[in-house]
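We store sequence, tokenised fold; for instance:
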Amino acid sequence: MTYQQNPEEVAAGAPAWQMPEPQSRPTSGGIRGFVWAVWPWMNWVLPVLFVVHGFLGAGGWGTLILLTTSPIFLPAMGLLGALPRFVLRKRGHRTAPGPLVWLLFVNWWGWVTVTLTMQDAGDSGPPLSLLRETLTVPLARDYEMFLFFGAIAAAVLAWSAVLLIAIFVRPPRAPAASSRDAWATVSWIAAFAVPALVVASVLVGVQVTAQQRDAAGDTLAEIAAMPLADQVQRAEENYALTQERLSAVRELISDDGWRIRKEDGEQVGFSGFGSTSYECMTADAACYTIEVGFQLASTPEDFDDEDAEFLDRLEALGWEQTTRQNQWTDAQGFMLDLWSMASDDSLTVEINSPEWWGDDSDLRGELPEPDDADADRVYRFDEWPPLD
């Protein structure tokens, strides 16, 4: 760039060496110029995508709330995002100062991560986020919430730092070549490192989810790699284990007279295989529990569920009473319920197993419900309907 002295000042006799050396202004090229150019677009595009992201996937009530409040939310976010740039322009900047560029990348990718990981609510349960709709492998909801709130914190802190730097940064001047190259290097590293960090965080979450263990100590990855036939055999063993845990309790009450259907033919509880639980939904993985129920037509005369001897024998079997009346749990995660009906003097015991990994729909297709074709059959304490 060539600079000319003022002809009038030269003509007036001012020597050339007394003329102030002209200062060049930062150019609009390079990554800082690019960031400066796209900054206004990011201030509006990212909030708009956040508001309408529910229409790109399975949106819920949150999408409706965002859409309703968008006349306030969008201008507020757009103007807040533009505030640091406005301050910089007033101070003469026409490119993004070096210390700001990496912070802007953090802020923008924070917006993207929040949009992808936002969990919604719906009438039939929580719909999948955009991220979990995109992934073909499970990602735990708890970990996704960690990403969501972490991204919010990163975006807010980065914007706050950008605003503070914009207020206190020096007016633009021609920097030394070494300084200019150093900030350009940092900016380019951030341009690739920040999105790479987001992707890496998701991959870590996928791996953490795959290593979650069920009640048997098996990881989700191990069960996913297991052939369906082996999973079916495992489910049959879990059914037998559940029945055995309840059988020991039934023995304390009565040796005989147990039914899985009431006298009117109604099934006692669920009494079968294949229900899912909230814990499985939280892990974003398929799992199942087994529920079993038996009933005595009349409560034995010598039985009292509040009797100290009965409670001691339950404790000896590994059962510990919960805060609910007539409910116990054990170290494996089984849940036992026992209650009697004053109206007909019947006594019912039910057990709910802990969660085991496995696709309940696939297993249900291979495993039938317990065979209870003979509704009048009476079982001993150590008998139960097989999975035929």
The CA atoms of residues 5 and 11 lie 10 Å apart.
